[in-house]
């Protein structure tokens, strides 16, 4: 069976796409989409990617949202300091044994996103 090899892109609707892209770049460090063939695309670091359908009535993220983005980070505390410095609210901070530390923030369009610092691998 043929399998996908990873996430090839994340596409979101926005009433102000340029401003939203700049927020993701300036606050979270997500590079802008290449404008032409000479621009370098974002190449993510190797790591765990989770695909997990949730129940339609989950309260883990807003029901108005069909999808929640989860970004791996190396240092959640430092990332949350950046997010707070940008004026955004951090909520739902938690730790899961064997999985890592998590926190939720809203992007400027009001989408809840999750930041995840995976627990170090025992290997």
Average pLDDT score: 91
Helix/strand class: alpha+beta
Distance N to C terminus: 29 Å
- Strand-residue fraction? 15-25%
Oligomer: single chain
Rg, Å, rounded: 15 Å
The number of helices is: 2
The description of the largest β-sheet is: 4 strands, mixed
Structure description:
By secondary structure, the chain is of the alpha+beta class. The chain is built from two helices and four strands. The model has no long low-confidence stretch (mean pLDDT 91).
Keywords:
alpha+beta, 123 residues, four-stranded mixed sheet, 2 helices, single chain
Task: List the topology elements.
Elements: H1 17-28, E1 70-72, H2 76-85, E2 90-96, E3 100-106, E4 112-118
Parallel strand pairs: 1-4
Antiparallel strand pairs: 2-3, 3-4
Give a quick rundown of the structure.
With 123 residues, this protein is an alpha+beta fold.
